[in-house]
Amino acid sequence: MTKKLYLPLLMACVVALLTSCSGKMGELSSDYFTVTPQVLEAVGGKVPATINGKFPEKYFNKKAVVEVTPVLRWNGGEAKGQSAVFQGEKVEGNDQAISYKMGGNYTMKTVFDYVPEMAKSELYLEFKATIGKKVITIPAVKVADGVISTSELLNQTLNSANPANGDDAFQRIIKEKHDANIMFLIQQANVRSSELKTAKEFGNEVKDVNNAANKKISNIEISAYASPDGGMDLNTKLAENRQDNTAKLINKDLKKAKIDAAVDTKYTAEDWEGFQELVSKSNIQDKELILRVLSMYSEPEQREQEIKNISSVFKTLADDILPQLRRSRLTLNYDIIGKSDEEIANLANSDAKQLNVEELLYAATLTTDPAKQEAIYTKATQIYPSDFRGYNNLGKLAYQAGNLDKAESYFKKATSIKDAPEANMNLGLIALTKGDRAAAESYMSKASGSKELNEALGNLYVAQGQYDKAATAFGDTKTNSAALAQILAKDYNKAKTTLSSIEKPDATTDYLMAVLGARTNNTSMVTSSLKSAIAKDPVLAKKAASDLEFSKYFTNADFMNIIK
To answer: What is the H or E stretch that residue 9 is in?
Structure first.
């Protein structure tokens, strides 16, 4: 009886001894680990992961040291993340101590540099354990499958990005004017013979404009004034009479020349505005005091009296300033009418040197043929080599054609001529296509003023993993990149609107719509969009086959038939 009692007890002690004292630390179940996110995802070119682990009770040897390393494995390669070291209770060190009796929880954060092969991969935890000098084998544990790489579609969506254009400043109609002044003596309104020369010269200008084939008179303005000295009634009558007398003279000349032009007249009794302007531009004594009086008092009589009280300067005002205000200002307003679109297009093709740079750049906007646009911009660089816009716009055409090296060369030539925001923004896009986010950010910091900058910044923010910021920057832009940002920011309704509104949807547009369908549990959207995408680009079938965005469709017959 005694033997039977002691034998089980003895065996239990042996097992306990082997477990706690022999140095064995067995295999760990995947149940002891959770990974956030549950499916790894590429963000800004990185694959971040947070691993929460647990060493169970009566597992961790009091003298053990265990190094845990996250390893992302794929066919033909692997990437190791940041390790963490843990120690038993009897180990002297600074690492996290794990209780033998209670076990212990821990959190590890790791980041992998993304490579495309990671799309079909597995995340393992590898263990390197020692008890004293003895190496203990703990089998690696698989804790996650694969990496969602939707953010990396930026490499494709950038193809449809909109480089900044060097816009022309062409104006069909340019408004011009010609001014002249007929001067009057104090308290007089008659047009003196000495002023008739001015009137005649003005009339000749009117004739020239009227006779020019590319000019058209809008109107003639007559603005008559009296100086702000003397009584208001007198000045009002003076200004009105000066207006009438000047109008009679101009109308007489127009009638004689048989010119039909509208003459608009007005008068100002006391030209305080002109007075202030002349004083501001002068160097007369007490200028600031006079200007202060004008700001302090609004009543004409009070203004005049306060200025007269400044006896030291009033004579200077009377001699130099006030006579300039006794006048009728003549203004000829007219339009210069530019060449027609047909004329510009023909000259761009036959004799581009007859066009100024604005007309030549404008000519490129009259066609949608990239080859013709390229020919025009090439002529612009030849005729106007010091204007950056020709080179920039050639770069834009090369970018849109997929020739990024050629595009970069043109953009750099443009910046060598002028450090323009448009060319810098475009170099930022080039840098993004190369994966150089730092260079892209540097270029775009010099692109303020470019109207396409927000869209370019949206692409940069996607590359940086700032999806909400990217979606805001894109605004209502209808591009693949904008839709990608909205999908990543989980604004699925807006993403659908964007994708549906893209003018020329390509294979990437359709693929993004398929991803959107998967994220919103719309099976028909997944299959129809993916079918269209693969029809345009058969390479996408292979991508879809391993894309974890579609993991729940890997057993769907329709899906599998599409990706065959």
So the answer is: helix 2-21
